Structures are given as C-alpha cells and as structure tokens.
Amino acid sequence: MKYFHVILIMVSVSLPNVWSNSVETSKYGGTITVHVKGMVCDFCARGLEKVFKSEKAVSKIFVDLDESIVSIRKKPEKILTDKRIKELILKNGYSVEKITRSGAKSESKT
Amino acid sequence: MQTNNWEKNRLHYHYTYDVKNSFGMVFEYEDNTDRQNLNGQWNHLLARSNNVTSQANLYLKSQLGIAMKGKRYASNAEFGVAGDWETRKFFTSYAATGRYANGIDNGSFHQKVRVGIAPYVAGYGEFHTWLMLQLEQHPESFNDDEKVILTPLVRLFKGDYLVELGINNNGGPLLNWIARF
C-alpha cells in the first residue's frame, strides 16, 4: 500500500508534463495563435514576419494588425514551444498576451 | 535610409543588433554651411510600453565622428533623446538633439515634434498613408526664417519601403525614404 501511494504521487506529478510535451511535440501541424501587444505598425511588424519565416518549425505566418494576432502554421514533425514563440516575439520588441493552439487534434485523424 | 530637407541631405545605413540596440553609419551634407559629417551612430531603446492598441518608445541616440567644413576637420558629437507614441490611427513623436564639433561650431540644439493621423486604417501588407505635421525649432539659427520650421508631409509605405514627401513653410522640400532589408 505504501508503494502504491508513492507510485500514485509520481504519476500525478508527471502527468502535466506528459500532456504538455504531447502538445508541443505533436507530429502534426496545427495553427498557433499568438496575441501580441504593441503590434500597431505594419512597417515595424515586417521584422516579426522575417524572424518567424526563418524559424525551421514554421510553415507559414499571418500577421493581423486588426486583431493584434500572429497566426503560425507549424510544420508537421517539428517542435515549436511557447517558450520559443515568446522569445521570438520579445526579440522583435513586442509582448505576448496569450498563446492558443488549435488544429493538431483534427489533423491527427487524417 | 535617406533624408533630404531644407537643412541637410543625409544617408544612413543602419543595423539592428537586438531589440534595444542598433548601430549605423551616417553621412550628412549641409547645403547652407557646406559642412559634411561622417558619424557612427548608436541608438539605444531606453524604454518601451506595449499595449494592445498602442506602443510607446523612448530612445537615446548618439553619434560620434568627424565634421568637415572646407579644409577644416574636427571631431563631431551628437546626442539626443527621442520618444514616440502611436496607435494604428494616430502618431506623435518628439526628438531633441544637441551637437558639437570642436572648431567648426560652438554647439547647437534643435528639437522636433510630429503629429500624424492615418486617413484610413490599412491592413498588414496593404498600402498605408499617413498625414503628418512636423514642427522644428532651431534656436541658434542665424536666419530668422529657419528658427521655427513647419512642414506638412505625407508618409506612404508598403511592405519594406517607406517614403515621406513634404514642403515646409519656407517652400523647402522634404524627401525621406527607408528601405528595410
């Protein structure tokens, strides 16, 4: 019984990490939507597009100034973590409000 | 980047090292005084405020190099602060600059403020238009007409190319362009 409790605790602690990795290392594509603060100038946002296009995990990028979002289409089999996205956004002088991911689940059925 | 106005023609090559620092070389030719400046430039972002619908910046700008006037050469230094605040519809900026070239001038100061409005809000990658009003003050200018200069201008840009066209209250033209690589 003592060992059962230890195993239960270990499984509980590791579950969030397993779930997190399954999202970030998904072998499927999917769209990542980044809500960006400070992105008000088209001319200034060109740098953001260039940086993401040179990122190996990125297939396509769409900048929407009206909604202040950057939509990133990730390449299948590639990893693009939230941490890396935040680094790239900060590198261009903007701030990240939130990051949402979609599409990977539906693609996994194909 | 190239700027041409009533005061000077300026060619500027600029490299953005990181989000807080950029370095460049500036060559200037001043028509009225037949003076040339060749400076290295360092721009430093002191502070930035990012909001959902606006951005504000505060920069420290410095230049060091040589000034040439006729057969005279001198070390040249320029220091300034610049700030801006913009939304997708409104723009405002302020810059104050002081400079000194030993043996060529006794030091000078000028400041510039700009306000602008976009007549329409264009999407990313579309053709953007801004209508702006620029007010400059050059207190040390010998010519009274040049102590305060008002320049209405239009800023146009699309993609990596930006151009500004204007005419000041003395009839002097303004032509600036920026190409981003």
List keywords for this structure.
heterodimer; A: alpha+beta; Alpha-Beta Plaits; four-stranded antiparallel β-sheet; 4 helices; disordered C terminus; B: 181 residues; 69% strand
Order of helices and strands of chain A: HEHEEHEH
Tell me, what is the CATH class of chain A?
Alpha Beta
Shape type of chain A? globular
**End-to-end gap of chain A:** 43 Å
Which percent range fits the helix content of chain B?
A: under 10%
Short note summarizing the structure:
The complex is a heterodimer of chains A (110) and B (181). Chain A is α+β, with helices and mostly antiparallel strands.
Task: Give an overview of the whole structure.
The complex is a heterodimer of chains A (110) and B (181). By secondary structure, chain A is α+β, with helices and mostly antiparallel strands. Chain A has a single domain (2-105), classed as 2-Layer Sandwich (Alpha-Beta Plaits). Chain A contains 4 helices and 4 strands; from the N terminus they run H-E-H-E-E-H-E-H. Chain A has a 4-stranded antiparallel β-sheet with strand order 2-3-1-4, covered by helices on one side. In chain A, a hairpin with a 4-residue loop joins strand 2 and strand 3 (69-74). Chain A is globular and about 55 Å long. The N and C termini of chain A lie far apart (43 Å). With 181 residues, chain B is mostly beta strands. Chain B is built from no helices and 12 strands. Chain B has strands at residues 2-4, 8-16, 21-30, 35-50, 55-69, 72-86, 90-101, 108-117, 128-137, 148-158, 161-167, 173-179. Chain B starts with a strand and ends with a strand.
